[in-house]
Amino acid sequence: MLQAEGTEAAANVKFDHFEHGFPAGFGPGGWGKLAYAVGIAFASFQLYVAAFNYLPSQVVRGVHVGFLILMTFGLSGNFTAKGNTGRAAGWLIGGAGFLCGLYQWIFYADLIAHDGDPTRLDLVVGTLLAALIFEGTRRLMGLALPLMCGACILYWFFGQHLPAPFNHRGYDFDQIITHLSYGTEGFYGVPIYVSATYIFLFILFGSFLEHAGMIQLFTDVSLGLFGRTRGGPAKVAVFASGLMGTISGSGIANVVTVGQFTIPLMIKFGYRRAFAAGVEATASMGGQIMPPVMGAVAFIMAETLGVDFSVIVKAALIPATLYFASAFWMVHLEAGKHGLTGMKRSEIPSAWKALVARWYLVLPLAALVYMLFQGFTPLYAGSIGLALTVALILGASITLGLSETGLRYGFWIGLALVVAAVSRNGLEIVPVAGVVGVLIAIAAFSRRGRASLVACRDSLADSAKSALTVGMACAIVGSIIGMLTQTGVGTLFGGWVIGLGAKSLFLALVMTMLLSILLGTGIPTIPTYIITAALAAPALAKLGVPLIVSHMFAFYYGIMADLSPPVALAALAAAPIARESPDKIGWEAMRIALAGYVIPFVFVYSPALMLQAGDPMAAQLGFYGAVALATFKALVAIGLFGMMAIGFLFAKMSLAERGVALIAALCLLGDFRFSDTVGFALTVVIVLWQWRQRPRAAVVTA
């Protein structure tokens, strides 16, 4: 990957787009300093929104989009322009976008007063906003998503000329621009609301933890636990990426952070390059479904369904565990098949020592989980979690400067007492922020403290940079939502799904799966989920699938799209690290993530897997009995799919043995007479047969 050396290096980076993130730093010279300052201003605004917001929601969304456009054009100019003229042009265009966002604030009362009757200036600003969002998204993510959204805009303008049933009644230019650029069902819809509140805050939360050393903690713990086991480096990759998912929720970010360490490590210990990169891509994409943070989609889903975020977390827990268990099982079998060993004891850090050294980094995550499950809003829980993270980072830097152990213990005890005192009437952000302010003042008087303050400042700027791709995707996908809500064309697709479901729910699910994967070819998970959920999820709900299950079904296949060739964004991110073809990585990732393609069908037919009511076995076994049975069947099926995909259990498997394993897995997932009986019987047969082959295997163990 091309890198920019801090803020001083020349930055003529020839990228088609920045889907995998911008290079390091913020650009050359003064332009980099400008981007850095704007990033801090953006993050500071978002912190204000999270902690003390008194602004109307529409204003918050407008300013958020303004900052997104400003930084998108500014940074892309910094990294791609050949001279100062090009960079200045980028910042001027971005500034125009920022003014479009401010327009929502400056003329807030006027826009409400003449809602539905836009002025000429309203139309000019709305049209400019649309053009800048489309061009900014193209610069960040390439052509796929803007072309898809552009096709929807064309249909919106000219769909009345199509034959029935594809036509609509027709809409004037001012109706479309007003709905798109000023309502709450276009650019400023639910996705951008979630981006402006929850998503940015949790990106900031993850950024602070990463700067504090959380990645190193996760890596050391993973190495300590699994480094010496058979094929240990790949298991480290799966486990570390799963842990990273608990704070970042971004698959691509996981690939380019954890993958920098795990992919070369796997290659070093004998894994094929494509397989090593496929493991990291599979595990990293799973970060979006791993509680407690999950990905941005989880926040959008909670807001769309009108449920607490903790409900989404609970529903995702078992399927996410199964997904990572599947990846873990796949690398275990691959290591056994090729006789790959673990790492030497001398190469492995102690998991216990790593936890002892950085135990305080776990506390914010634990507090976040506790607050989410106690019913606090994600916005409030994230704000407190972030404040606690900053307090712990600064507190650790302050105590490192104290020579006496007693003084260090005294500081932590005193800090705990102060926090308890200011929170005696419940957790409130103002007194907690006051404690953080005092710690900032104390830290400013020591060298280590000042270094920590600089790291915190860098986290603010980096989080703004990291939020651009997610935020712009949330903005542009509003064009599709706006088109669907105003034209009502979504009911047409829903009717097709319902029609198929009347004959076979399985066919309706397959159609939804294919839609998600096709839509996800080249576009991020967020817009894939939003589009599929808007089109298919309501139809699946009418067919009797619980609403949260139907939305999670669309979510899963949006993730799988990033692993599926020909585009496979996660594979593209891993390719330069592994120095391997993205297509080869994509096919390996599909094989490793095979269970991920199956799990959604399992929880549709067995809602107990997502802790939802309506499971057919609940009447006989009770709710928790149904949960246990569904989980057990899914685990056995995952084991069988792994055997079939890798071709190994205790010995290398023939094609016939793989076929039996596949039939057994499908029977366990099926819903016909004696399907479970046949599935378990075939499982016992194939496992015993493999056990008998074990003494004659070329590779027995490692």
Automatic annotation (TrEMBL):
Q: How does it sit in the membrane?
A: Multi-pass membrane protein
Quote one Gene Ontology molecular function term. Answer: transmembrane transporter activity
Task: Give the signal peptide as a residue range, or say none if absent.
Answer: none
**Where would I find the TRAP C4-dicarboxylate transport system permease DctM subunit domain in this sequence?**
130-404, 430-613
Q: What is its main location?
A: membrane
Function summary: Part of the tripartite ATP-independent periplasmic (TRAP) transport system.
Q: What is this protein called?
A: TRAP transporter, 4TM/12TM fusion protein
Taxonomic source organism: Bradyrhizobium lablabi
At the highest ranks, the source species' classification is: Bacteria, Pseudomonadati, Pseudomonadota, Alphaproteobacteria, Hyphomicrobiales
